[in-house]
Specification:
The protein is of the alpha/beta class. It has a single domain, classed as Alpha/Beta hydrolase fold, catalytic domain (Rossmann fold, 3-Layer(aba) Sandwich). The protein is 39% helix and 15% strand. The chain has nine helices and eight strands. It has helices at 5-16, 26-39, 89-99, 118-132, 147-162, 185-188, 199-209, 242-254, 279-297; strands at residues 47-53, 56-62, 71-75, 103-106, 140-145, 169-173, 231-236, 259-264. Strands 1-2-4-3-5-6-7-8 form an eight-stranded mixed beta sheet, sandwiched between helices. α3 (89-99) packs across α9 (279-297). The longest helix has 19 residues, at 279-297.
Length: 298
C-alpha cells in the first residue's frame, strides 16, 4: 500500500535518517535500521532463505514461482558501516519480483571493525561462489545502493584487473563513488535530501577507506570505463550524491559503455529502500529490474 510521497519524506527524515548519524552508538544504528526494515511489508509470495556464498553469510530473496535463468548479486548500502539484508528487505524483495529471479545479498564485513578491502574481498568471494555454482558471468547482474553501489563498481574494477569475466549488467542506486566529500551537491542539496547529512560523509569514508581513499578500486570516477557491461543508474535529483551518479553516467557514455539513467525529480538519497510504500520507489525498481533481466537473459 503506497503512502503519499510527503508522508514517506517525513518518515525518512524522522525515523531512518537519525539511525545513520554517527552521533548514535554503532550497535544502536545497526539494530535500529534492521528493525525498520523488518517492520515494512513485502510483496505477496516473497520467499526468503539464508545460506552462504564463498564463506560469506548470504540472504536469498526470491519471487514466487519458477525463477528466470539469471541471478542478482546485491550489495547493500549503509556507508560501509551499517546496513544489512534485513534493513534492505523491501528493496531486495521488490528487486526480486522485478527481475523475476533470486537476489543474493551477502553480509559483507563492515567498517570500522573491518576496513577496506574487507568488504570488497567478501563481495569477490560471493561473486566467485555464484560462478562456481554454475552461473555464467553474463547471467549474473551485480547491483547495489549508496556504498553498495560504490562496492559494486569496486568489484567490477577488480574483476577487470584480474582478467576475470564481467557481469552481464550493473545496477546502481544512488551510488557513492567519490569518497573525498567535495561534490557540489553536498551543499546544493543539503536542504532537500531527507536521508543523508553531508557531515557524515567524511566520517564514514574514514572508517572504511582510511588512508586508501585514492586506491584505484575506490576511485571509479577516475577509471577507464570503456568495455564495461551495461550500467543502469538510478538517483534522486534532490540527493546529496547525485553528482556522483551524474559524473559516472557522463564518463561511461563518453567511453562508449551502454548506460541508462533515471534521475528522479523530487527524490532523495536511496529512495527505493521504501519499496512497497513509495510509488516512485516501485516504479524505479521495476524499471531497473526489467533492464537487468533483459541484459542477463538475452
Amino acid at each position: 500500500m503506497h503512502l503519499p510521497t510527503a508522508v514517506n519524506r517525513l518518515a525518512t527524515r524522522a525515523i531512518i535518517a537519525p539511525l545513520l548519524s554517527p552521533s548514535l552508538p554503532l550497535p544502536v544504528r545497526r539494530t535500529g535500521l534492521d528493525l525498520v526494515g523488518a517492520s515494512l511489508p513485502l510483496p505477496r509470495g516473497t520467499r526468503r532463505s539464508r545460506g552462504e556464498l564463498g564463506g560469506v553469510r548470504t540472504d536469498v530473496v526470491a519471487p514466487p514461482g519458477a525463477l528466470a535463468p539469471h541471478r542478482v548479486l546485491y550489495l547493500h548500502g549503509g556507508g560501509y558501516v551499517v546496513g544489512s539484508a534485513s534493513s534492505h528487505r523491501p528493496l531486495l524483495a521488490g528487486l526480486a519480483h522485478a527481475t523475476g529471479t533470486a537476489v543474493f545479498a551477502p553480509a559483507y564485513r563492515l567498517a570500522p571493525e573491518h576496513p577496506f578491502p574487507a568488504a570488497l574481498d567478501d563481495a569477490l568471494a560471493a561473486w566467485r561462489a555464484l560462478r562456481a555454482d554454475g552461473f555464467p558471468a553474463h547471467r549474473i547482474a551485480v547491483a547495489g545502493d549508496s556504498a553498495g553501489g560504490g562496492l559494486t563498481m569496486s568489484l567490477l574494477l577488480r574483476l577487470r584487473a584480474l582478467g576475470e569475466e564481467l557481469p552481464g549488467a550493473i545496477g546502481l542506486i544512488s551510488p557513492w563513488l567519490d569518497l573525498s566529500g567535495t561534490a557540489d551537491a553536498l551543499t546544493r542539496n543539503a536542504a532537500t535530501d531527507v536521508l543523508l547529512d553531508g557531515s557524515w560523509i567524511h566520517t564514514m569514508a574514514g572508517d572504511y577507506a582510511g588512508p586508501h581513499r585514492d586506491a584505484a578500486e575506490l576511485t571509479p570516477l577516475e577509471a577507464d570505463l570503456a568495455g564495461l557491461p551495461p550500467l543502469h543508474v538510478v538517483a534522486g535529483a534532490d540527493e546529496l550524491l547525485v553528482d556522483d551518479a551524474d559524473a559516472l553516467v557522463d564518463l561511461a557514455r563518453a567511453a562508449g559503455t551502454p548506460v541508462t539513467y533515471e534521475r528522479a525529480p523530487g527524490m532523495w538519497h536511496a529512495y527505493p529502500i521504501l519499496a512497497g510504500l513509495l510509488a516512485e520507489a516501485d516504479v524505479s525498481l521495476n524499471r531497473l529490474g526489467a533492464a537487468l533481466r533483459a541484459d542477463c537473459t538475452r
